[in-house]
UniProtKB/TrEMBL annotation, chain A:
The keyword Transport belongs to this UniProt entry's keyword annotation: yes
Subunit composition and interactions: The complex is composed of two ATP-binding proteins (PstB), two transmembrane proteins (PstC and PstA) and a solute-binding protein (PstS).
Annotated InterPro entries: PBP_domain, Phosphate_ABC_transporter
Location of this chain's protein in the cell: Cell membrane
Name of the molecule in the record: Phosphate ABC transporter substrate-binding protein
Cellular component aspect of the GO annotation: plasma membrane
One BP term from GO: phosphate ion transport
Keyword field: Lipoprotein, Palmitate, Phosphate transport, Signal, Transport
Function: Part of the ABC transporter complex PstSACB involved in phosphate import.
Membrane topology per record: Lipid-anchor
Superkingdom field: Bacteria
UniProtKB/TrEMBL annotation, chain B:
Membrane topology annotation: Multi-pass membrane protein
Compartments (UniProt record): Cell membrane
Gene: pstC
Keyword NAD: no
Domain ABC transmembrane type-1: 92-303
Record's protein name: Phosphate transport system permease protein
Domain of life per record: Bacteria
A Gene Ontology term for the protein's cellular component: plasma membrane
Entries under SUPFAM superfamilies matching the protein: MetI-like
GO biological process: phosphate ion transport
Function: Part of the binding-protein-dependent transport system for phosphate; probably responsible for the translocation of the substrate across the membrane.
Transmembrane regions: 37-66, 86-116, 128-147, 167-187, 224-247, 283-307
Keyword list, A-Z: Cell membrane, Membrane, Phosphate transport, Transmembrane, Transmembrane helix, Transport
Xref: NCBIfam families: phosphate_pstC
């Protein structure tokens, strides 16, 4: 019993000592303090996590908690007051197909996200036009030979309704056209990872994904004759891209503003953000 | 009293001596009380969590019927939430047919395996098979799902000539593999528990081994096997991750084995992260979860009922 008490006491003492030393270190630098909660898009999560790490190193009194789910949960969490920042793949302060505007929220651009149309490696087609894509995703074009490929059924893989990738792809690549479900050769997936696996393992499949995910088993096809590359996004010739936004309730203030400023700063945009394969917002005209 | 004529029992005497010591007595009393409250607390904590689950899912779910009629929800096949059409009939029917198909595939095989391990296999093989089955029960479902996606689907595509391969058949095959060890192990125990004298009597009457198994052992173990089947069924109904990877996730009735479709679980997991908190769509998904809860509850009641009957029999 006595031994046990001793051990408990020692452990408690150690915990206090460690906490105290951390607190001491924290008060040494940085004038900003507070807690920032970021919810929303998984596509922007790697960017948020990296920025949070760097920002907290400079401002040790600020704590940033970030988590990712569907894009729409970002502005929702801000509306409910659960989060200070809602990461979203579209501008949630205006109406988009399927989702109403979140009034009173301010959209802060933080990155440019390029998307690509992808096909299984066995597909011979390497360029598709807006009209061809509209035909394919609305179910009017069902065979690859109709768009210059081999005689094989087209297998459509799409993200579930409400996905930020889907919202942007429909708006930019399909010019607002619908994605229509079919009785066969049609499948919905829940994440970018699943999209890549499904298109990669299904012959004759077509889908769409964030450009950063394109590698290995899937092939990015040209859009209206333009290859899906960061350079083509920047020079304006490749059109399937969107801004990633941090939604805030009104104009950001205090630590939240400082954090968003940091994410938008040249240092972060040209450094870590580029390394994560996003495109700096300043690159777009 | 009769006790007086015996020699004092040393154990009884030592207990008495202890009881005489007041501090010890007090300590035992305290320990008993503390233990009682601890056990009470444990069970109350469980009840509390269960009540919370039912309350919160149920509460959100029932909000649905303020905006959608039960008739539409249960009878309509049109699930187009973006245009406010919430018919869940396709999901309910798909869930039931997927479960039925799964059992159709897994029950004969797993009962066969149980007969092998309990009746036919030599002791060393039993010692090998049982731990392997136990291990299979513990494999995370996402692993089965991934195998289904990368191994089973290409095979189905080649065999059927379909472009995609996703659908009820693929999901049922993956689920059958998942519930197989559960059903086999519990059936195995049920068969092993059949008294030896039944078999001896049957052999004495000149039965062959097949006759003994089919006409004596299996009927005698019948209720135990049924319990195993129902437990497998609850696992199949509630399974999500493995199903979502191979079923195609398209909200429509599965008219063929290869129609990309969606069941209650897979639809919930696909859509829950993309819906707004206070929307009819969210309530509809909660209602689907509540429905699953009710179905499992019903099945567990059946298991308990059968178990009681068996003890009486």
């Amino acid at each position: 019993m006595k031994l046990f008490k001793k051990i408990t006491f020692t452990a408690l003492a150690a915990v206090f000592a460690v906490t105290a030393s951390f607190a001491g270190a924290a008060s040494a630098a940085g004038s900003l303090s507070g807690k920032i909660t970021v919810n929303g898009s998984t596509a922007l999560l790697p960017l948020t996590l990296q920025a949070a790490k760097e920002f907290q190193r400079m401002n040790p009194k600020v704590r940033i908690a970030a988590s990712g789910k569907g894009s729409v949960t970002g502005p929702q969490a801000v509306k409910k007051g659960i989060a200070d920042i809602g990461a979203c793949d579209w501008d949630a302060s205006i109406d988009v197909p399927g989702f109403k505007a979140f009034s009173g929220q301010v959209a802060n651009k933080v990155a440019v996200i390029p998307f690509a149309t992808i096909v299984n490696k066995n597909v011979g087609v390497d360029n598709l036009t807006t009209d061809q894509l509209k035909g394919i995703f609305s179910g009017k074009i069902t065979n690859w030979k109709q768009v210059g490929g081999a005689d094989a059924d087209i297998v459509v893989i799409t993200r579930a309704f409400g996905s930020g990738t889907r919202v942007n792809y429909q708006a930019k690549a399909l010019a607002g056209g619908d994605i229509v479900k079919k009785e066969k050769n049609y499948k919905e997936v829940g994440s970018s990872g699943d999209m890549k696996t499904a298109v990669g393992t299904t012959p004759n499949a077509i889908g769409y994904i964030d450009l950063v995910y394109v590698s290995g088993d899937v092939k990015a096809v040209k859009f209206n004759g333009v290859a899906a590359t960061s350079d083509n996004v920047i020079n304006g010739s490749y059109k399937i891209w969107a801004y990633g936004y941090y939604m805030t309730k009104g104009q950001p203030t205090g630590a939240v503003k400082a954090f968003i400023d940091y994410v938008q700063s040249k240092k972060f945009q040209q450094g870590s953000l580029k390394k994560l394969k996003f495109i700096p917002i300043s690159a777009m005209k | 009293m009769a006790q007086q004529s015996y020699e004092p029992n040393p154990v009884v005497q030592s207990i008495r001596t202890k009881a005489v010591s007041g501090r010890r007595h007090l300590r035992h009393l305290l320990a008993n009380t503390v233990a009682r409250y601890y056990f009470l607390f444990s069970i109350l904590a469980l009840c509390f969590v269960l009540a919370l689950v039912i309350l919160f899912i149920g509460k959100t779910a029932l909000l649905l019927f303020g905006q959608v009629t039960p008739a539409q929800f249960f009878l309509s096949f049109d699930w187009t939430p973006e245009e406010d059409r919430f018919g869940a009939a396709a999901f309910i029917l798909n869930t039931l047919s997927l479960t039925a198909l799964t059992l159709l595939i897994s029950v004969p095989v797993s009962v066969g395996m149980a007969v092998l391990t309990a009746e036919i296999a030599p002791a060393w093989l039993k010692r090998l098979i049982r731990p392997i089955l136990d291990l299979l029960v513990g494999i995370p479902s996402i692993v089965y799902g991934y195998l289904g996606l990368t191994v089973l689907l290409p095979l189905l595509r080649r065999a059927s000539g379909e472009g995609l391969g996703d659908g009820l058949l693929a999901a049922a095959l993956v689920l059958a593999l998942m519930v197989l060890p559960t059903i086999a192990r519990i059936s195995d125990d049920a068969i092993t528990a059949v008294p030896r004298k039944y078999r001896d009597a049957a052999y004495a009457l000149g039965s062959t081994r097949l006759q003994v198994i089919m006409r004596v052992v299996l009927p005698a173990a019948g209720r135990g096997i049924l319990t195993a089947v129902i437990l497998g069924m609850t696992r199949a109904i509630g399974e999500t991750m493995a199903v979502v990877m191979v079923i195609g996730n398209t909200p429509q009735l599965a008219k063929t084995l290869f129609t990309p479709a969606s069941v209650l679980t897979s639809n919930i997991v696909m859509q829950i992260s993309n819906v707004e908190f206070d929307s009819t769509w969210n309530y509809a998904l909660h209602m689907m979860a509540f429905l699953l809860l009710l179905i499992s509850f019903l099945l567990i009641l059946i298991v308990r009922f059968l178990g009681r009957k068996r003890r009486e029999g």
